Each structure stands twice: as structure tokens, then as C-alpha cells.
Amino acid sequence: MPETEETIVTTLAQALQKEHEDIDTALAACRSALAGGGAPPPAAPMVLQALQALRRHIYVEETMLFPPMRKGQAFAAIFVMLREHGQMWPLLDELDALLAAGGDAARTQALLTELEQLLAPHNDKEEKIVYSLADAAHAGESGEQMLAFLASGRMPAGWVCDRAGSGASRPAA
User: Fold this and answer.
1) pLDDT tens-place string over residues 138-159
2) Distance set, CA 16 to CA 11, 66, 117, 132 (Å)
3) Does the global pTM surpass 0.85?
4) CA 154/CA 121 separation, integer angstroms
5) How far apart are alpha carbons 49 and 55 in whole angstroms?
6) CB–CB of 37/57 below 8 Å?
7) Longest dimension (CA), the chain
8) Residue in 173, 171, 1 with CA at minimum distance from that of residue 86
9) Is 168 helix (H, G, I), strand (E, B) or coil?
10) CATH code of domain 12-152
11) Cα 82–chain centre separation
12) Given CA atoms 70, 71, 77, 82 in this order, what sign does their dihedral have?
């Protein structure tokens, strides 16, 4: 369903939620392109771009959004978000490796589906709990800096999420 007007973003919570929507849309488009017979080589750049956007979003949350909120009422929710990021990270790595090796469309599509199934409840919880507190927790300069980063910042090369190597496992498929 095409958007008829651009979403106006005025708050940090809105900007973060918009990123969720953009990433979800991109992943769904990638899966659709693969289902339509687009083999990984032609679809690969689109998939890689969506994966990079998701990695960058996780970076923003873990390095900027969460730290000042960890001691407040969002503590438990942030703990869950970090664990779930750790569950997603191996999927992102596997998709990167599969695409670099020219992997098959069916496996790529299956991994994208698995990723979307992790993201849907994760994003819902994050938006309702963490993002509802984000603007108050990041009033002033920290919020402005984060909005500026969301507009044009780059994640450092080689950065991995907090729980990527701590034994976080994917739920059984």
C-alpha cells in the first residue's frame, strides 16, 4: 500500500518508530522480491541495505537510547530488548554470509521470515514500553543529538550488539 503523504517526525519516539516501519517495509519488500523469483544476486543489494538499516537502528538503541534509561522504569524492558537484539544478530550474520556466497533465494527468504517473526513482537514491546519513555529520558541535547544521528549518522565498522556473543540463542524455529 503506497504512502500518500510523508510522515512528519517531531519527536525521538516518532523517529525511532518510523525507522521500525521503514525497516519492516524494506524486509517485506526483500522477501517479496525473492518470492517473485528474484534470485539473491539481484535482490542482494536490497536485502543488504535493509540489514544494514536494522544493524544501525540496534546500534542507536544500544549506544544512545538505552544507557540513560537502564536505571529507570524501563530497566526490565531494556534487558529484554538487549536479549532479543542478541537473538537477531546471528540471523543478520547468517544472511550476510549467505548473500556474500551467492546463496539460494529460498534460504534467504526463510531467514528473512524468521527475522520478521522476531521483529514484530520486539518492535511492538519496544514502541509501547521503551519509546513511550524515550522523549522524557532524552529531553534536550541528548534527544537532539540522537535525532541528528538518525538523520545522517553512521554506525562504526565492526560494531556488534551487546548480547551478540554472550550465548544469546535464537528461539527454535
Assistant:
1) 998 989 999 999 999 999 999 9
2) 9, 12, 19, 11
3) yes
4) 26
5) 10
6) no
7) 48
8) 171
9) coil
10) 1.20.120.520
11) 12
12) positive
